[in-house]
Amino acid sequence: MPFDITYYIVKIPVLLFAITVHEYAHGRAALSLGDPTAKQMGRLTLNPLPHIDPVGAICLFLFNFGWAKPVPVDIRYFRNTRRDIVIMALAGPLANICVAFLAGLLIRFLILPFEIYLQVLLWLILMNLGLGIFNLLPLPPLDGSHVLENILPPAAALKYRVFRRYGPLILIGVILLDNFAHTGIISRILIGPMLYLAHLFAGDNLFFLLPLLRQ
Q1: Phi, psi for residue 29 in degrees, rounded to 5
Q2: Are 93 and 22 in contact (CB under 8 A)?
Q3: pTM of the full predicted structure?
Q4: Average pLDDT for residues 42-55, to the nearest whole number?
Q5: For the chain, percent of residues with pLDDT exceeding 70
Q6: Element (H, E) at 48
Q7: Which of 106, 137, 144, 135 is nearest to 123 (CA)?
Q8: 152: left (phi over 0), alpha (psi -120 to 50) or beta
Q9: Number of helices (H), then strands (E), in the chain
Q10: For a Cys staple, 84 with which of 33, 62, 134, 153, CB 3.0–4.6 Å?
């Protein structure tokens, strides 16, 4: 693809928005469950800078999936610890999926003949779905790992917690294999659900916009 500055002008703000919505939702959910830690540490904000994890942002930018800097949480504030951790962990991915749903409605019902507008909508739906679904994978340090750990029976959760320390290395290894050895591991897991939900939200208009990614 030839260099197109418009591509980056659109993609970078959408990426930052997706990360910010994701982490803000975690912090807001934690606050609603009684934990003010994120708010006290300046993480309950729509300013993207405090939320950026450099490696996760680069992966999201290059590969359309990634992660952000985890919101600080003090589970001692939670009344029902295991349940509340699951709610807090799910809040980020669900927020991204909601943004993708809204972008899909605009694609379905409000197509306007402006290329930048269409690119923004396309990246909004794909990046938010990519970030949301990727973070639901049960691999530490992703949100899905917190969900799995806290729905497992206590004995199994304890064994899984031991595995957590190796999670980031495994995750980076899978990403490298997927993109440089072309194993397609993450693609096979994510692309199907992403396209299914994107089409569900946006309808057939999605397919008219997808060629914009190759321009």
Answers
A1: -65, -45
A2: yes
A3: 0.87
A4: 86
A5: 88
A6: none
A7: 106
A8: beta
A9: 10, 0
A10: 33
Distance CA 42, CA 51 (A): 10
Q: What is the mean pLDDT of the chain?
A: 86
Structure tokens at 60: 């999201």
Checking if the pLDDT of 66 tops 70, the result is no
At 58, the amino acid letter reads: I
Q: Which of 10, 23, 88, 123 is catalytic?
A: 23
Positive or negative CA dihedral for 9, 15, 16, 20? positive
The tally of domains found in the chain comes to: 1
In the predicted model, what is the mean pLDDT of residues 198-209? 94
SS3 content of the chain, % helix, strand, coil (to 5): 75, 0, 25
Active site residue 23: yes
CA quadruple 164, 168, 171, 177: dihedral sign: negative
Residue matched to tokens 């029976």: 153
Place of tokens 């004995």: 155
Query: Is 73 within 8 Å of 38 (Cβ atoms)?
Result: yes
CA distance 67 to 127: 11
Q: Which domain holds residue 171?
A: 5-214
